[in-house]
């Protein structure tokens, strides 16, 4: 089976989309399929081209047997601005079509959204090859930018909604990772028979608790001491709404609760603002650590007492389950979750953390108080690791996803999978 994956992000970028597509590409390659990935030049999250790369129309790489084709895109550090971000998306939408055609004939085209513009790329490429198009929906566009007030112009809203209708109509199959997200799309009139749910996954052999001396070494290096460490690890962007954590830190300081330390590990569009806010409050219970290599993250997560995950409230997020949650769980730590909907249900059902009201510093403080008991944290941490291994292990989920792609291809072309695996 020849598989073309289209994604705006890919390693060495380390956000959830890049890691998801990389995992899928590597699994399919190791299973004997021919995999090509069309992606942009790495620049996320700071909008700065990674060292060792130079922008060009097309750059070919071989990464672990995966053919990676990087195509031109507009790079911007103004990720909070609508115009520059649209240039980033639209430029890659156009260039990725060229990259997909350059990859040669494919049996299936798999496009990762957002941005939803990649459904256009996927459609153009899939029809050129007469291959089925699978649209992997990881976030609801355009509901997200509309509800967040990023897109306000009525014409722009109508155009975005037209793009959404086009994407769902032209895709042969639509994959979701959450049932609520799927239902929200079904409510727009999309036929249920072309949609299916495949959960997110985590490599439980990579993200796992490290030996205690390694975790202690991280705490000592950054001066965390013996305080209760509430750690956020990942992209510090606007949707994460991490000002709530800063306000909670301020609240705890005012109450003279000095035994809690908030640690933020990572970069992103909102990092500088949050650092300045923390400084303006004179907080000594907040620590910012720059982005770390992916290989170091299990040690950092293991150095925490609880791992924080927070997203600002929005109706479209009721179906959101951040991939970060599974990495947290796999590292065997309790989760402090500021999220409504399906993600909150998952944590409650697994008994692996404390769910708090998003954007509520007082609720966060109450959640931290519940996590102050070591026995409670140990119990929740064990539940986190157990659930990750049993339900979301990379090998189990990807094997199922591989079989579904083979089924989709075989339905269109019965000889396609046999031609590669024989």
Describe what this molecule looks like in 3D:
- The protein has helices spanning 16-30, 82-102, 118-129, 143-147, 154-170, 179-186, 212-221, 243-254, 271-281, 297-302, 324-330, 342-350, 361-370, 374-391, 394-412, 416-421, and strands spanning 2-6, 34-40, 58-63, 66-71, 108-113, 133-137, 173-176, 195-197, 228-233, 260-265, 286-289, 306-310, 335-338, 353-356.
- It has 422 residues and is an alpha/beta fold.
- It has two domains: 2-201 and 393-421, Glycogen Phosphorylase B (Rossmann fold, 3-Layer(aba) Sandwich), CATH 3.40.50.2000; 212-391, 3-Layer(aba) Sandwich (Rossmann fold), CATH 3.40.50.
- An eight-stranded mixed sheet has the order 3-4-2-1-5-6-7-8, sandwiched between helices.
- The longest helix has 21 residues, at 82-102.
- The radius of gyration is 22 Å and the shape is globular.
- It starts with a strand and ends with a helix.
- 47% of the residues are buried.
Fraction of residues in helices?
Answer: 40-55%
Q: Which strand order spans the largest sheet, edge to edge or round the barrel?
A: 3-4-2-1-5-6-7-8
Architecture per CATH nomenclature, i.e. the level-2 architecture of the largest domain: 3-Layer(aba) Sandwich
Mean pLDDT: 93
Sequence stretches where pLDDT stays below 50 over 5 or more residues: 418-422
